[in-house]
Write a structure and sequence with these properties.
The complex is a heterodimer of chains A (225) and B (426).
Chain A (H helix, E strand, L loop, with lengths): L2 E13 L2 E13 L4 E5 L6 H8 L7 E6 L2 E2 L5 H8 E4 L11 H11 L2 H17 L15 H13 L5 E5 L7 H18 L2 E6 L10 E6 L2 E2 L6
Parallel strand pairs in A: 3-8, 3-9, 6-7, 7-8
Antiparallel strand pairs in A: 1-2, 1-4, 4-5, 9-10
Helix pairs in contact in A: 3-4, 3-5, 4-5, 5-6
Chain B lengths: L1 H10 L1 H39 L4 E5 L27 H8 L4 E9 L3 E5 L11 E4 L10 E4 L8 E5 H6 L4 H4 L3 E6 L16 E11 L7 E3 L1 H12 L4 H7 L4 E6 L5 H12 L2 E4 H54 L4 H44 L12 H27 L3 H6 L1
Parallel strand pairs in B: 4-9, 6-8
Antiparallel strand pairs in B: 1-10, 1-11, 2-4, 2-10, 3-7, 5-8, 6-9, 7-8
Classes of the chains: A alpha/beta (225), B alpha+beta (426).
């Protein structure tokens, strides 16, 4: 089992007397290499789940195991560097860096042993996302689809086992959105990367073999079968 | 990561430049203080060591160095010996000591002014001396004259006197120097015995007294006679017996005896004796004290500059919050974020330092000839004033980096501790 979530609960304190359950007692499993779409309206706990799986939020109740090991038992930096890659709706590219530098960003922080291999891989990824001719451009010179392709290439640099995509087409038109989805599915096939896509857009579920519906921080039992 | 940190520094070039200006100003201030004071110390020390031999002792009845800084403190209620008069007898007593090679007494003549015979213009205030030293001795930086040793009725005058009377060596030598009592001044009042007194000497040479004020030299015998007549003594001998010489310049055979001999003079006669080391130590004390006070102001300026860096770095955290979140999401550790921010602040410090040193270099190159001219006009024999010590330059550069890094510690810790989730939502 690649990902095993057991009774995951995440509470946020809004004010002194107001605590909200962003995710409440959530449990499910994802196989290695699987493509899963997590669907739910705003406030259903999708982003919270992604932050936990992305190793950005370690303050939760319950258990989240990746490769048979609880996430919190991993060194958080090692986990973010090597186990997961994350793609965001807003792309989160660094405006002052070129396309190639943005893709190579994880290599700046990588261990010395991995650094060289990662830097060598930048050109391959540029080619893979079809942006070789834009390698020296700055993010502001790119279209939305190109920017998201840069973000995908950056997430793949360390060859993660899990690729998390948070509303990857949210800022794109439907045609470009389909292209990006197509690219993600290709990558899943080529690299056997477990792909977890979080979205509120039901059109995106095309191509995903498995869908998990969330509502109010829980599995939406009426839609999950 | 260094490349990435440098990218962050140069992303806002204007802000980096303006922030580093604080360090630049501090560096200019501190460097000019350090190099300026070092130059000053070197000029004074060179001037002094070129005149004062290491085997020489100056003896005086008063501790003239203590006017500015106390030397040789006495502990508790220790009784201070009344100084003996520096009479001819005392000079002879010192002269017979086997360690002594030469004793040259000197008399300071106060409250007098100088004229050239037939010229009403007076050089006043003036500082003539009764001092039996040759014109070409090491006490003077230059000499021009018919003879080097004065006889009674003869005088040497200084370059300052030559300039004052707008004349030349050739013209002034052979003229008559008139030494007369100056009108009452803040420091001296005319007495009845002094009215209409004037003393005439044939000028036989011109001395360059350097940075000292030795406006005219006559023999000690003539000086004693002059002061005897002025003060109502029977003759010069009575003046020397009652008042004595003002200073004795004692030359020893062996420089190793200087310290012991100096202490003996103080203990035996209650006189103040100074060696070259004493004076150099005194000069060093004064210049160091001034340097430290000035450096304090420089450090205050560096402190203000470091607050500027802290401010800029805190501002850049706000600007880079999302970027810090991205970096953490792709695997940057807290330590690496800390490192990135410390490099940024260190580089700002380094840039400020390099700019400051460039300005200092330009200023010293431009100013050096002017300072040297000014010093030479004052009688110092300096050929160069500012000497930029590479070790001090290296120290300043390292200091700038350290200042930048120290100023960056708080912002760097703040940046490193940012929660990646909150940072990404910023």
């Amino acid at each position: 089992m690649m990902i095993e979530i057991k009774e995951l609960t995440k509470k946020y304190r809004i004010s002194r007397n107001n605590i909200v359950d962003a995710v409440n007692n959530l449990s499910f499993e994802i196989e290695s290499g699987e493509v899963v779409t997590i669907i739910g309206p705003s406030g259903s706990g999708k982003s919270t789940l992604l932050n936990v799986l992305g190793g950005l939020d370690r303050d939760y109740d319950g258990e989240v195991r990746v490769d048979e090991k609880e996430i919190r038992e991993y060194n958080s930096v090692f986990y973010r560097r090597n186990i997961v890659g994350t793609i965001f709706q807003q792309f989160y590219l660094i405006p002052a860096l070129s396309v190639a530098e943005n893709i190579g960003l994880p290599s700046y922080f990588a261990d010395r042993s991995a650094k060289k291999a990662m830097q060598d891989k930048v050109n391959y990824l540029l080619d893979r996302v079809n942006l070789t001719d834009r390698k020296n451009h700055k993010p502001k010179e790119l279209s939305g689809g190109q920017a998201q392709r840069v973000a995908i290439a950056r997430a793949l640099l360390a060859e993660p086992k899990i690729l998390l995509a948070d509303e990857p087409t949210g800022n794109l038109d439907s045609k470009t959105g389909k292209e990006i989805m197509g690219l993600l599915l290709e990558i899943n096939r080529e690299m056997k990367t477990t792909l977890l896509i979080v979205t509120h857009d039901t059109e995106l579920i095309v191509g995903a073999k498995r869908r998990i519906f969330l509502k109010d921080g829980k599995l939406d039992k009426s839609r999950n079968k | 990561m260094l490349k990435y940190s440098l990218n962050l520094v140069f992303r806002s070039k204007l802000r980096t430049f303006l922030t580093s200006l604080g360090i630049t100003i501090a560096v200019v201030l501190l460097s000019l203080i350090i190099f300026g004071m070092n130059g000053f110390k070197d000029v004074i020390t060179n001037e002094f060591t070129s005149r004062f031999k290491p085997n020489e002792i100056i003896v005086s009845s008063t501790n003239f160095l203590s006017i500015v800084a106390p030397m040789g403190e006495t502990e508790g209620e220790e009784e201070v010996k009344e100084p003996e008069l520096m009479t001819s007898a005392l000079v002879k007593e010192i002269q017979v000591d086997s360690r002594v090679s030469k004793v040259v007494p000197a008399i300071m003549i106060n409250g007098m002014q100088l004229r050239l015979d037939g010229n009403d213009k007076a050089f006043s205030p003036s500082f003539p001396f009764g001092w039996d030293v040759p014109g070409d001795s090491n006490y003077f930086t230059g000499f021009d004259g018919e003879k080097t040793v004065l006889d009674s009725g003869e005088a040497f005058v200084s370059e300052d006197v030559v300039s004052f009377f707008k004349t030349s060596h050739d013209e002034i030598i052979g003229q008559t120097l008139v030494i007369e009592v100056a009108p009452s001044t803040l420091l001296s009042n005319k007495t009845k015995t002094q009215i209409d007194k004037e003393y005439r000497y044939k000028i036989v040479g011109v001395i360059d007294s350097g940075s000292d004020r030795s406006d005219a030299l006559i023999t000690t015998g003539d000086a004693a006679e002059m002061l005897a007549q002025n003060g109502g003594f029977i003759n010069g001998q009575e003046y020397l017996d009652e008042i004595g010489y003002d200073q004795l310049f004692i030359e020893l055979n062996n420089e190793d005896d200087v310290n012991n001999f100096r202490e003996e003079i103080s203990e035996k006669y209650g006189l103040q004796a100074f060696s070259a080391d004493d004076v150099l130590e005194f000069l060093s004390l004064i210049t160091n004290a001034i340097t430290f006070v000035l450096i304090f102001f420089g450090i205050v300026s560096a402190f203000v500059a470091s607050i500027g860096i802290i401010n800029t770095m805190v501002m850049s955290i706000y600007e880079q919050t999302r970027e810090i979140g991205i970096n953490k999401a792709v695997g940057a550790s807290n330590y690496q974020i800390l490192y990135i921010f410390l490099i940024q602040s260190g580089v700002i410090g380094l840039l400020g330092g390099l700019l400051g040193l460039t300005i200092v270099l330009a200023v010293t190159i431009i100013a050096d000839p002017f300072v040297v001219d000014m010093l030479q006009e004052q009688g110092f024999s300096a050929e160069r004033y500012f000497s930029l010590d590479p070790l001090i330059i290296l120290g300043i550069i390292i200091g700038c980096i350290i200042t930048g890094v120290l100023a960056g510690i708080y912002p760097a810790i703040k940046a490193a501790r940012l929660d990646p989730v909150k940072a990404l939502r910023f």
